[in-house]
Amino acid sequence: MKWLLLKDLQILRRSPLQATLLIAYPILIAVLVGFAISGDEEKPRVAFLNEVPADSRISVGGEQLPSSNVSERICARVECLEVEDRDEAEAKVSSGEVLAALVLPANLVDRINSLSTLTPGVPEVEVLVNEDNSVKASFVDDRIDALLAEANLAIARRIAKEGSRYLGLVIDGGKLELIGQTFPILGLRASAEILAALEPALEPQLRPALKQVREFADEARDNLDVAGPLIDRLAQPIAVKKVAVGGEAPPLETFAIAVAATFTLAFVTVLLVAGSLALEREENAFPRLTRGLISRGSLLAEKVLLGVAVGLLVTLLLLAGLAIFVPLAWERFALWLAAIVVGGAALGAAGAALGAAAREVRAVSLLAFMVTLPVAFLSLVPSGAVGAGVYDAIGVITAVFPFKPALEALTAALDPSDSIGGPLLHLAVLTIVYGALARLALRRFAAI
Amino acid sequence: MQAQELVKRYGSRDALRGVSFEALPGELVAVIGPNGAGKTTLLSILAGILAPDAGTVELGGDAVGWVPQQAALYRRLTVEENLLLFARLERHEDPRASAERMLELIGLGERRGEIVARLSGGNQQRINIAIGLLARPRVLLLDEPSVGLDPRQRARLWEFIAGLADDGTTVIFSTHDIQEAERYGGRLLVLADGEALFDGAPSSLREAVRREAPEAADRDFETAFVAYLHHRGH
User: Fold this and answer.
1) Each residue of A308-345: pLDDT tens digit?
2) In what order do the strands lie in the sheet with A79-82?
3) Which fold would CATH assign to domain B1-63+138-234?
4) A284 touches chain B (CB under 8 A)
5) Any idea what DSSP says for residue B176?
6) Which of A197, A267, A333, B216 could form a disulfide with B227 if both were Cys (CB 3.0 to 4.6 A apart)?
7) What pTM does this model have?
8) Residue B171 class from Cβ within 10 Å (0-12 exposed, 13-18 middle, 19+ buried)?
């Protein structure tokens, strides 16, 4: 067995591309994942604009809290990037430097304080988002919900306490402070006692007591009217006003379909083109073919065409299958075709470049898989979810491989919220570049 | 076909050092020499697969058929599919008829529907040669064509190749089997370490061997040939 092991190691040593990939791949993945999950990057970066006056104090249920406590609580949950004004916040969101911008308006504390009054307002914070990606949109929504849940819970506890005090007045009676005056509240309990006392003798002289009971009924009704809106605010004391400053994201399910279709198109096309080109060499047929039977350019074009045709068929089958469960915009079928064909051509050209770079079909398949899979996953990382430097690096990687533009083209083809022109142009450029690279790589194809 | 002063280098190693020779229509030229002599490199240059670093090849406009040592065909296709494919790529007017002719020629008509990967090495080599012939060449280049064939298949192959030469096709084949070269080659080109040591008829090579390695003259031709190479410094 050891001799077989030695033989396999020798073969591996003589395939430097495969050996290099086997070593470089886990390192690359470890570095990428490490960057993504390490340090402060686990907190999403949020631009933070606090317009609340510094001396404002939150007062709910008789307790006083400094307003700065609000920003401290928020910035404990996210990485806050303080901005000077709304324009700066919008710019950072639009550029993808931050996941979102949180704006605390100047009247926020006043409105929070009004929650414990008889005329409660609606405290509102503003969140600026750039939902250029459905996954990101969903991620932002989750983060906003989580961020506000804690603040809402703290305020809700105080409001609930205040509501209980009002209800206590209704039940037990007492004094109600309102606009600087004090009103006595009889309460249901005392009313019942009075009624009980009056019951044995309903004489005319008891009319004042009956009048008191009638007045209590009026007071009770008014107090319950006040408690009603307060209790309504318990569910979400602070409202969120979400403002989209960038592109509009397509529905999540449309985006999910585009992702599934692009994965299918990418793997089918890249693996098929790369594998079939490598097979020409493995079968020793490449020199025979290119001795005059067919030009190298024509051979490449034939392989890419094969990839596009099969990719188109498989992707359309996938979409047709998904259409059973999710309604699709069949009236945009021509755009689907454009996205799949142009995307398939770019992915096929990339597959041809990979196929021309390796010696054997198995090595090519491994190479194509190892390149396509991480690029596909990187293409789904939303801006703001990782550090700026890492995101820039991801942007470069995903821009030079056709997966992300193909995903953008398919998303735009399936949903009208995005423009398809840019991604198609990007794919056309990549097709030319990878076609040229494949043509260059074929020069050494026969010699190996 | 005329080759003049062909030179080919792989890094610092000289695979061919100024090899020149010519072959006339109907000639059967055997390129012989030990392993690494430059036989495959020479045939690859003549076939246009490799470009020489120096020197020229003149073909007189004749089509060249090339049969590489390792079968260049699709093992996952059937015998007939392979022939049909290459007949189409060679733009034959009636590819089916051409494929049929080749099947008859190589004697695999009854196995036309079999996947090539399931055939023996000898049968794969017959298809390999048939594909080379589909180019309808005036010059046919065969790199070690009889490797892996049993004696009966080999005899049949040489009979077939001799028939092509009789019809006027120039046939140039490489081999390291000196007896096969002597038996079937009308002319021998001896290569060693990229250098042409001899170019002439088999009987002339025997003369040269007797002259330069007299101590081995009475032994079998292969032994005498090895002694000759030794005397020439190889």
Assistant:
1) 988 898 888 888 888 877 788 888 899 999 999 999 99
2) A79-82, A45-50, A100-104, A124-129, A239-244
3) Rossmann fold (3.40.50)
4) yes
5) S
6) B216
7) 0.65
8) buried
